[in-house]
Design a protein that fits this description.
Blueprint (H helix, E strand, L loop, with lengths): L2 H18 L3 E8 L4 E8 L2 E10 L10 H18 L5 E9 L2 E5 L5
Parallel strand pairs: 3-4
Antiparallel strand pairs: 1-2, 2-3, 4-5
């Protein structure tokens, strides 16, 4: 399975998980010149910008580096400005490893 297929499959599993946990999906794969946000969801009046990382046999959380967080943050600001958002938000990660899924809320450095 190539990286793109694995990523798409991981995002599909993440969306299913979020919907089952009362998140409303409001966007996916939002791109800017800085990077991409995998999933944008809303729950309890908070917008969640979610990075999805999946892997088998290694810990994909380590692929969320300080540089990746900076790119995500710049992309979030682009999204907020473009969509005139004035709502609380946070950056989350969904880690999929060996078919186990974990939501980590409020990832920051």
């Amino acid at each position: 399975m190539n990286t793109t297929t694995k990523g798409t499959l991981g995002e599909s599993k993440a969306i299913e998980f979020l919907v089952n946990n009362n998140f409303k999906i409001i966007g996916k794969n939002f791109s800017s010149k800085f990077g991409e946000i995998d999933i944008i969801a809303k729950k309890d009046e908070v917008i969640h910008f979610i990075e999805v990382k999946s892997g088998f046999g290694f810990e994909p959380i380590y692929n969320i580096t300080p540089n990746k967080i900076k790119k995500i943050t710049k992309t979030i600001h682009t999204y907020i400005k473009k969509n005139k958002i004035d709502t609380p938000f946070c950056i989350d990660a969904i880690i999929i490893e060996d078919n186990k899924l974990e939501l980590i809320e409020n990832i920051t450095l």
